[in-house]
Structure formats: structure tokens, C-alpha cells
Design brief:
heterodimer, A: mainly alpha, MetI-like fold, 2 domains, B: alpha+beta, D-Maltodextrin-Binding Protein, domain 2, Dipeptide-binding Protein, domain 3, three-stranded antiparallel beta sheet, 18 strands, globular
Chain lengths: 335, 574
């Protein structure tokens, strides 16, 4: 197992470098220009000088090499400096965003709290709701609960967040006035009242996103449970006289969780990608909104860094999912 | 007894007097608490010299101030100086080569240090430094030197006679930055000064407490502001993100925010939101004109890269009958109604404002399809082969490729105009391109508006400030984009007329304002009547403010937040 893990980790390094190169070339070859969002009142020569000031005058291999160096050498130095108070970096040039001229990693760090709070929380809530729904739907297959559950899953899967999001805003913010429609990223939780406010501003985006997750995970759970409920060992367990709850919750559930846990693990990188559309609808301004703004503004350093970080996460979570699968299921052995 | 009554009544009178001012125009600074502003395009940086984007310029205008501002009528008002320098009061030299500003005494930066002429001189240095990539460089063109004889006097010396000397240091795009704060940020170091770029020290009514790029800015009142009774608000939250609909909703329907900027929405959407009763939309007009540019060169795709949209002439758009007929076939009032409602007006001009420069010689608010057809017939553009599409006298079918940026209102316009042009016998193909590509200026992309690989294209343009000389300069022959200039250039239609170039050269030498107005109008008419463009709509800005927010004066000539120091909370919260 350890061999396997080490091998996979080593393999992922050239994979990631290749991914970085592909992303960079895609951005290079795509049309779009950081000066595209500047107003037409700025004449072209000025825009050209602005481009050169951003470093766009250099050829592509110089810029790619510089980005790699900054990502793997300079940024870790700054991170070590920030944590341990040392001075390895010595003022080296960091990866700087075109739009805001500020270091990319600072902006990402600034956005992480709201992304983790809203999108991370919605993932957790979605999974927690999905599991019982999946279990009960499978146990009572074709019952009313199952049909309703299937229906809600289909609706949740098909309805896009820009529709469901705006719908809940219109109902709860405009008509009823119970919940705020714009997320306040500067809000700090220090007391019960502030905690309540945080809860209020989080409920709508979390529920909209959770609906999507619930739809997916509950179907997986249901399918895995059905698979196992028909197995012989379940009959044996019942014949032995075990209580029904033990049979389902201890024996069947554990075996069903194996594929479901891997699916959940594979879904984690999407948290960090943020929920681009939902973030825009609720003005949560997390990593998803950052990525889309950077794409629209042709902010190459920002796009490169975020997409590369997502690629790293996906490769990592793939590895984690595979190993977890091996840990949970003794029948699987990697070599 | 009488004395006591008198004293009591006097006290009562004073108390009532205070109550009468309960509408809070006057009072101590910071009495009205927080005001929340939402800009659906979030501010990325608080330094207008590094980003020309309107959202960034306006966010910075809460903190940084210029020497003079433009008010809502477009007139210059002194802001940090005693008066507007003119030739009459001696502020501008007789030969128009220098202008002297007298800074008002007692102005302080928000950190308490005094504001001096050295800061003004430094601002010029900052924007003209090599490698700095200053977005407002054109404001400082033609300045030879800046002298600071004493702490409160600044003299700007120009290279030659400059009829309009107010470009530099005036208006929201050219505010004064603190020399001490930005001292280490000159030239290539400018982008590295993140702290300075995000939290500039200014002379404005507010200072930056927190700034999260592309997200939110939190500001609090400036304790060192020159008027002790202002600002009425102690805190501003400038939130960004989402879209125009959500911003409008937040102000007019849910009441969560007090001011929403630039609501580019369909008129019926705005009317519906207004029914929410919590806010009011306000519209203001500037110089923004939505227009159809006519390609004066040949964009045929069979031509080589050096010739396409470079060689003249266009197969048929150069003929006066054609572009006049195209303009006559358009129902502009309908376009305004469909697209902009109260935020749009019909215009036949390239330069619609200020009044001194707005030509009144043309009318174009009546659609005349029959007249257009007749004009084309008489000019020899007939449909000889019966396929419904006219041909030129040489037999070239009149097919038009009509492109624009991706935008719901623009696509509506394209559909309507295509229908009208097909009614008069042309065939029209529509195309839309993502805005960041269309306006991007990437020389490698064939879809930029400079390359103009189409017959007509539609977009909007305007000019900053109130003087149209540089803007009218976009019509001279040399300003055409071509492969030789890496497709950079402002004369998008490639319009070229010798009389135009001569008349524009005359404008650059004319000082008398009335004469400048006359020449500008003539240039405007010459361009529109000789096939440079078909103006469509004079587009205003539409913003919304809460009914409980007083003091808002929508200003399209400067930042919309220009008078935020004068804002206050009215008693009325409905």
C-alpha cells in the first residue's frame, strides 16, 4: 500500500507539470486581453505600455518559466516567512494579479474563509442530508418516500442554481424579508447575535448548493444500499436473529459506504473551485467568483494559479479516494 | 417674571430651531452612521492611475480628490483650490502656455500631514514615470514642467499653447496622491505597492479601513477633513459583485443597500423594481453614444492579411445614398424605448454634450422606410436578379456583416435593425463577440473592434471631461488602425477626409470657447454626414438610491460618488 501511494505521488508530479503547461498554452492561445476591460477612453499606446508594465512583453517561455519559479520557489518562501518569521524570500517578486496588482496568494487566502464557510458547509450539509435519504429510499424501495425522494433528486439535479438561487431570494428576501440577499464578507462572529446573522446570511446559498449535492450523493447511496441488501450475508444475518437495525446500519451500511465515500472524496476539489454561479447570485465573493472575474479580465497569473491549485487538489483527492477504497475494503490490495 | 418668560421662550425657540434642522443637513460629523453602496462590478484597486476602469476610478474618488471637479452640468468647480484659473483672472497665462493653481490653505491628508504643492508635482512624476504603465498618461501629455514656488502654488508649464489646460489634476481620473506614501512606488515599482494601491491616503471625506480586491471596501470618516460638519456618514461599505439586477433589487426592493451604480437594465425591469417603493432610479446624461460604425475600407474575407480592412474603398458603404438610407430606415425612438427607457435619448450626433459642442443641424427621429428604398433606387442600387437583395451598379450584392459585443440590449438592437435593413433590400448577417475579446485589442484575434473584419459594427464610446478635441481627433486619417500600427488606432471606421483633418488642426489652435464650439459642431456634422458612423442613442447612466438617502446628485462628468461628503440620511424611510 505504501509503495503504491509513493508511486502514485511520484507519478503525479510530471502529470501536474504537464497540466500546468497545457493550462498556460490554452490561456496564451485564447483570445482576450487584460486591457479589454479598460474603457475605450484610454488610447491604444497607453494600453500597450500598461501591458508591458504587467510583463506581457516577454515571450511565452520566459513567462511560463517565471511563473513556475514563482509558484514552486518564491511563494513557499513567503509562506515559510509568514509562519516562522524568517526572511528567505528577501523581497523576490511574487505572482501578481493583473487586475488588482496584488499577490495572487494573498487574494486566494482572503477568499478562502467565505468559500469554506459557504461552499464547504453546503457540501457537508448536502452529504449529511443525502445519506439518510439514500438509506431509507433503498430500504423501503418503491415506497412513497422513495418516489418522493427520487422526484426531489431529479428536480435538484436539473434545476440550475441561478434559477433556484434567484427564486429563494425573491421568496425569502424580497417578499418575506426574512433573510439578507447579499452576503457580507466582512462580518465577524463575536456573539450570539452575530452568529445568528452569519447563520441567516448563509442559509440560502448553503441550501441552494446542498440541493445539488444531495441529489447526487443520495442516488449513489441508494444504489449501493440496494446492491448490498440483496446479498446473501444479509439473509444470514437476519436468520441468525440479529436486530433489523443492526443488520442495516452495521452490516449493510458499512459495505455500501465504500463506493459512496470515494465519490464524496472525489467531490471535495469542487468545494475549492467554489460554486461559481451561486457565488455570483448571492455575492458571496469566494474563489469561484474570483476565477470567473479573472477569466473575464484575462488575468493570466490569477487564472493559472487557481486552476493549477485545483488540478493539484483533484490529483491529490483522486489518490486519497483510491487509498481510502483500499483501506475500507479488505478485498482490494494494491501492489 | 418677564425676564424668566423671555429666557424660557428664547430657550424654547432655540430648541425648536434645532428640531427644524432634524432633516440633518447640518450637524456634527458622522451623525448618520453607515451608508452602503453596491457596485455590481467590484473595485479591484483603489488607484485610478493603475486602472482606468470606471469602477476603480469611482471607488478611489471616495478617498482621493483632484484640484477641481466637474459638476453635474459639466462645469469646472474648484475643489482643493481657491478658484478656477482662467485667462481673465490671470490663472492662465496670456499665451496659453502655463496655468497656475492656488491651493486652499489648511487642507490636510487623512493622516494629518499638510497637503502641499509637492504632492501635486509628485502626482505628475508618478504618472509619467517610465515603466509605470499609468492608465491616465494622456492627461499629462504636453506638460513640459511643473513649478512649486511655495507650498500652496502650483504652476504647470506646457510645451506649447494649450487652449484647454485643465486635463491634468482635474476630474476623478486625475486626483492627487500623497508624495510621502507613494514615494517608493515610481515606475516599475508601482504595481508592487499593494498597501498603497489598496489603501491610498487622500484628502477626501473618507479613509480606507479595509479593502478586499474584487469584493468589498470598508471606509470610515476622515477626522482631518476640511469641513468639520461633514461627512454626515461615519462609515461606508462599498460592496461589489453580482449583477445589475441584484443591485437594483437590493436598493429598490429589499432595502439592504442605499446606492446602486450603473443599472444597465431593461426599462420595464427598472419600473417593476421601483414599485418596491424603497428606492428611486436617477438618470444622468453624458457623452456616451451608442453608434453603428461604417467600415470605409473593404473587409472582404478573400483579401490578404495586409489588405483586409485596410484598402479602400468599401464596395458600397462609401456611397452617400447608401449610408443615408441605412440611417433613415432605423426607428430610433423605438430603440430607445426597447433598450434604455428613461436612460436613453435619440441622437444624431457623435458628440451629444456638453451643449456648447452639440450640433443641432440634424434630425433623425423619424423612420422612413419608403424614403430609404427610393433613395437607393435612384442611386442605382437595384435588385436586378430578383432575389430580394439589391446589388451595386457593378453587380456586387449588398450583403452586410453586422457585428457587436455580447449584450442583451445590443442583440435586441441588432435583430430590429436587421429587420429594417432587410425591408429596404439589403441582406444582413448578425454576429456577436464576447466583450472582453471585442474590446480586448489582442492583435492576434480577428474579432477585435479595431480590426473591423465586418461591414458595420455597433458599440458605444464617450470621452472624459468636457472638451471634445481629443475625441474628435479620432476622425483624422492617420489614426486608422492597420497592421503597421499593430492594429492600434482610434479611427475605427478608417474615415479619411482632407477637410476634416484641416479643420481639426484648426481646432487645436483655437482658444476662444465659442469658436471652439462652432468648429466642434462642424467637425461632428462633417463626420456623420460623410459616412463615419450612424449615431443611434445618447445613453445616460442610470443609478438608484434609497428614499432615505439625501444629497445624491447624479454626475456623469465626474465620479458618481463625487459629493459623497454631502450625503445624509433623511427622516423618510419609505
Amino acid at each position: 500500500m505504501l509503495n503504491y501511494a509513493l508511486r502514485r505521488t511520484l507519478m503525479s508530479i510530471p502529470t501536474l507539470l504537464f497540466i500546468a503547461f497545457v493550462i498556460f498554452m490554452l490561456l496564451e492561445l485564447a483570445p482576450g486581453d487584460p486591457m479589454g476591460t479598460m474603457p475605450l477612453t484610454i488610447p491604444d499606446e497607453v494600453k500597450q505600455r500598461m501591458r508591458e508594465a504587467l510583463g506581457l512583453g516577454e515571450p511565452w517561455y520566459v513567462r511560463f518559466g517565471l511563473w513556475l519559479y514563482q509558484f514552486f520557489v518564491v511563494e513557499p518562501q513567503y509562506w515559510i516567512d509568514a509562519t516562522f518569521g524568517t526572511d528567505f524570500a528577501q523581497g523576490a517578486q511574487r505572482i501578481v494579479s493583473f487586475q488588482s496588482r496584488s499577490p495572487v496568494f494573498d487574494v486566494i487566502a482572503e477568499r478562502l474563509p467565505q468559500t469554506l464557510w459557504v461552499v464547504g458547509m453546503s457540501y457537508v450539509v448536502g452529504v449529511l442530508i443525502a445519506l439518510p435519504i439514500g438509506i431509507i429510499s433503498a430500504y423501503r424501495q418503491y415506497s412513497v418516500f422513495d418516489q418522493v425522494g427520487t422526484f426531489i433528486s431529479m428536480v435538484g439535479f436539473s434545476v440550475p442554481p441561478f434559477f433556484s438561487g434567484v427564486l429563494v431570494i425573491v421568496i425569502f428576501s424580497v417578499q418575506l424579508g426574512w433573510l439578507p440577499s447579499i452576503y457580507d464578507t466582512t462580518h465577524v462572529v463575536t456573539s450570539w447575535d452575530t452568529f445568528l446573522f452569519q447563520l441567516k446570511q448563509m442559509i440560502m446559498p448553503v441550501m441552494v448548493l446542498a440541493l445539488q449535492t444531495t441529489a447526487q450523493v443520495s442516488r449513489y447511496m441508494r444504489a449501493a444500499m440496494l446492491d448490498n441488501l440483496g446479498q446473501d450475508y444479509v439473509r444470514t444475518a437476519r436468520a441468525k436473529g440479529l436486530k433489523e437495525s443492526i443488520v442495516v446500519m452495521k452490516h449493510v451500511l458499512r459495505n455500501s459506504m465504500i463506493p459512496v465515500v470515494t465519490v464524496i472524496a472525489l467531490g471535495i476539489p469542487s468545494i475549492f473551485g467554489g460554486a461559481i454561479i451561486t457565488e455570483q447570485v448571492f455575492k458571496v465573493n469566494g474563489l469561484g467568483q474570483l476565477l470567473i472575474l479573472a477569466l473575464q479580465g484575462a488575468d493570466i497569473p490569477m487564472v493559472m494559479t487557481i486552476t493549477f491549485l485545483l488540478a493539484v487538489l483533484i490529483v491529490l483527492m483522486n489518490l486519497v479516494a483510491d487509498i481510502l477504497y483500499g483501506v475500507l475494503d479488505p478485498r482490494i490490495r494494491y501492489d | 417674571m418677564k425676564l424668566r418668560t423671555a429666557l424660557l421662550s428664547a430657550t424654547a425657540a432655540l430648541a425648536f430651531g434645532q428640531l427644524a434642522h432634524a432633516d440633518a443637513h447640518m450637524g456634527e460629523r458622522g451623525r448618520d452612521g453607515e451608508v452602503k453602496i453596491i457596485y455590481w462590478q467590484a473595485a479591484s484597486i483603489m488607484n485610478p492611475f493603475l486602472s482606468g476602469g470606471t469602477k476603480d476610478v469611482e471607488a478611489a474618488s471616495l478617498v482621493l480628490e483632484p484640484l477641481m471637479r466637474f459638476d453635474e452640468t459639466g462645469a469646472l468647480v474648484p475643489w482643493l483650490v481657491d478658484e478656477v484659473p482662467t485667462v481673465e483672472n490671470g490663472g492662465v497665462s496670456e499665451d496659453l502656455t502655463s496655468i497656475t493653481y492656488k491651493i486652499t490653505d489648511g487642507i490636510k491628508w487623512s493622516d494629518g500631514t499638510p497637503f502641499t504643492s509637492a504632492d501635486v508635482k509628485f502626482t505628475h512624476e508618478y504618472c509619467t514615470a517610465e515603466g509605470g504603465g499609468c492608465a491616465q498618461a494622456t492627461k499629462f501629455v504636453g506638460i513640459e514642467s511643473i513649478e512649486t514656488p511655495d507650498a500652496l502654488t502650483v504652476t504647470v508649464n506646457f510645451e506649447g499653447p494649450t487652449p484647454y489646460p485643465y486635463s491634468a489634476f482635474n476630474g476623478a481620473e486625475s486626483p492627487i496622491i500623497q508624495a510621502a506614501q507613494f514615494a517608493d512606488c515610481l515606475g516599475p515599482k508601482a504595481p508592487e505597492c499593494t498597501d498603497q494601491n489598496f489603501k491610498p491616503i487622500g484628502t477626501g471625506a473618507f479613509k480606507v479601513d479595509e479593502f478586499r480586491t474584487n469584493d468589498v471596501a470598508v471606509l470610515s470618516m476622515n477626522e482631518n477633513y476640511r469641513d468639520p460638519a461633514k461627512p454626515a456618514f461615519s462609515k461606508i461599505t462599498l460592496k461589489g459583485g453580482g449583477d445589475a439586477t441584484a443591485s437594483g433589487r437590493a436598493v429598490m426592493e429589499t432595502g439592504e443597500y442605499d446606492y446602486a451604480w450603473n443599472l444597465q437594465l431593461a426599462p420595464d425591469v427598472i419600473a417593476q423594481m421601483e414599485e418596491g417603493g424603497k428606492g428611486t432610479p436617477v438618470a444622468g446624461f453624458g457623452t456616451l453614444v451608442e453608434r453603428i460604425m461604417l467600415n470605409n475600407t473593404n473587409p472582404d474575407s478573400s483579401l490578404s492579411d495586409e489588405e483586409r480592412s485596410v484598402i479602400r474603398p468599401h464596395p458600397f458603404l462609401g456611397d452617400k445614398a447608401v449610408y443615408t438610407a441605412l440611417s433613415m430606415a432605423i426607428d430610433r425612438p423605438l430603440l430607445v424605448e426597447v433598450g434604455y427607457g428613461q436612460a436613453g435619448r435619440v441622437t444624431c450626433n457623435w458628440v451629444p454634450a456638453p451643449e456648447a459642442y452639440a450640433s443641432t443641424s440634424m434630425t433623425c427621429d423619424e423612420q422612413d422606410i419608403e424614403g430609404a428604398k427610393k433613395m437607393l433606387e435612384e442611386a442605382g442600387f437595384k435588385d436586378t436578379d430578383g432575389d430580394g437583395v439589391r446589388e451595386t451598379p457593378d453587380g456586387v450584392p449588398m450583403n452586410i456583416l453586422y457585428q457587436s459585443s455580447t449584450n442583451a440590449v445590443r442583440q435586441d438592437f441588432q435583430a430590429l435593425i436587421k429587420d429594417w435593413w432587410e425591408q429596404i433590400g439589403l441582406s444582413v448577417e448578425l454576429r456577436n463577440i464576447d466583450a472582453s475579446v471585442f474590446f480586448g485589442g489582442d492583435p492576434g484575434s480577428p474579432d477585435t473592434f479595431q480590426k473591423f473584419f465586418a461591414d458595420v459594427e455597433m458599440y458605444a464610446n464617450n470621452f472624459p471631461g468636457t472638451d471634445p478635441q481629443a475625441y474628435l481627433g479620432n476622425g483624422v486619417c492617420d489614426a486608422a488602425p492597420s497592421p503597421d500600427t499593430q492594429w492600434q488606432g482610434e479611427n475605427i471606421s478608417r474615415f479619411c477626409m482632407e477637410e476634416y483633418d484641416e479643420l481639426h488642426a484648426e481646432l487645436t489652435k483655437t482658444a476662444d470657447l465659442a469658436e471652439r464650439g462652432r468648429i466642434a459642431k462642424e467637425l461632428n456634422d462633417m463626420a456623420v454626414q460623410n459616412g463615419m458612423m450612424i449615431p443611434l442613442v445618447d445613453r445616460g447612466r442610470l443609478s438608484a438610491h434609497a428614499n432615505s438617502l439625501g444629497g445624491v446628485v447624479l454626475n456623469t462628468w465626474d465620479s458618481e460618488l463625487w459629493n459623497v461628503a454631502d450625503w445624509y440620511r433623511t427622516g423618510d424611510n419609505r
